[in-house]
Amino acid sequence: MQEKLYFYYTNDLHSNFKQWPRVANFLKEAKTAKEAASESCWICDIGDHVDRVHPIAEAFMGKANVQLMNELNYDLATIGNNEGITISHHDLFHLYDEANFQVLCANLHSLDGVMPKWLHSSTVIQSDQGVKIGVLGLTAPFNDYYELLEWHVSDPYETLEKNIVELKKSVDVIVLLSHLGINEDQEIARRFNDIDVIIGGHTHHLLRTGEWINNTLITAAGKHCSFVGEVILTWDHFDKKIINKEAYATDISHVPKDLQTVQMQEELEQSANKILGKRVVYIDEPIKVKWFQHTQIMQQLTNKIRNWTDADCAMLNSGLLLDELPKGIVTYKDVHRICPHPINPCVVELNGAELIEVIRASFTKEFTELKLKGFGFRGEVIGRMVFSGVDVVTDFYDNGQEYVLDVTINEKHLDPEKIYTVATADTFTFGRLLPEIAKSKIKDYFVPEFIRDLLAETLRENYGS
Q1: Could you tell me if 156 and 240 lie in one domain?
Q2: Rounded (10°) angle between helices 63-71 and 259-275
Q3: pTM for the full model?
Q4: Are 260 and 191 in contact (CB under 8 A)?
Q5: What is the dihedral of CA 323, 324, 327, 328, to 10 degrees?
Q6: Is omega for the bond preceding 141 within 30 degrees of 0, making it cis?
Q7: Domain of 418: which CATH number?
Q8: Tens-place pLDDT, residues 36-46
Q9: Do 84 and 132 fall within a single domain?
């Protein structure tokens, strides 16, 4: 006798709620069909469901996301870095208090030793005909952030070493919910033959029909839930083993919206608007925002981050602010609207030579016009860099390209060997946007504050009335 085991999953929604009613319709129909056929079916999320870029996620600190998942009868979830490091310790500790699904993350630990009641390393689920499936969850170890928030994420490989052998003793199948990224998933598949399926996320990779490494099937469904993933395992009860594994990612862009979910989201958005409607300041004149020109508001914000972090100098890109603020009352919703990024302030140490290279690179057309996606940035382009505490003199080539002539601090040229503290957006500590910043050995992140929190303070201090 054979039995099919179905897993439907979402990953990296990032609070893209415009897509969520389609997800709801797809999952409801899939689960109804499987239940009608008396087939075992589970719905999972692989993390980064929450992203404070959306007002609903911002207002409810992710709890509305959990509510939406409850409505679709999710069974299992792990957490992503957007759940883990973009909200305070207290908010994460209570994020899943009302979850009707099991939250699995074997490598997340609270540094005070008090663990949330909802957090489990693994669980064992059972099919209608008795197949026992062990499910574990893992998340990416961004400990530079986690430890500032009183959490620690242990090494995923060491965590698997401790859990897989013991879990294997009591289950027939092992499934890993991995918010680690494609490279880590592939390496895990090479090292751990007992893992049957890795359902992945984090790096937004799309594997339409999965990928095989040794005996492990790896799968993931891209980002923003444009696709919903499905895993089908066929278990042979006579031979007591899996005889087939399949993985699919289905494009749901043309799936009709679930109207009940649409209505629920509208109600949540109305509530979010009330929560975020708190007055920040009244401004007598519109505040203009320009991505490729120096503006007063960006200068004031850059001054603020330098003073707030007590750094020698600061630099922020103008693309952080997405829109101007009209005359009148400015609410926190307005602040969130024009600065939605989950980006934290950060201070790095650079010597004078490195700082000059960073400043020069920031004036290139390739940098200012880069349409950045990821690293916390939720805008359109990087835009012009604005500086505080450092004086930058520039000129223009005949082709219109701006270039740096001179850089001074307190009327003194930068000492190539001297170490300077530089406050900026944590975006630039990742990837290769500004290599000198990314390679800095000293990076002090400020959490849980976002750049927009400093923007609100900047508005109060400079325009308060």
Answers
A1: yes
A2: 160
A3: 0.94
A4: no
A5: 40
A6: no
A7: 3.90.780.10
A8: 999 999 999 99
A9: yes
